[in-house]
Amino acid sequence: MYRPHPFSWVPADGQRHATTDPKPRQGYHGIVVRTLCSEALTVDNSDLGWLWPTCPSCNAGAHELAGAAHGADPAE
Hints:
Blueprint: E1 8-12, E2 15-19, E3 32-34, E4 40-42, H1 56-66
Antiparallel strand pairs: 1-2, 3-4
């Protein structure tokens, strides 16, 4: 399964989190994942869940794993 970064975004517990857990073939919905903010959360892959705000700790960790400066302007 194609995964451009060593993490995936998942909606859980009212925020979008990032996880490095392997992505199951059927997707993450309803399973517990370990997030970059060190929580074990059940994924809620609902349409509304993708509109939740991003967890700041997971966002910082994802930027670090992607080798991108956190808060950098992508247009620069």
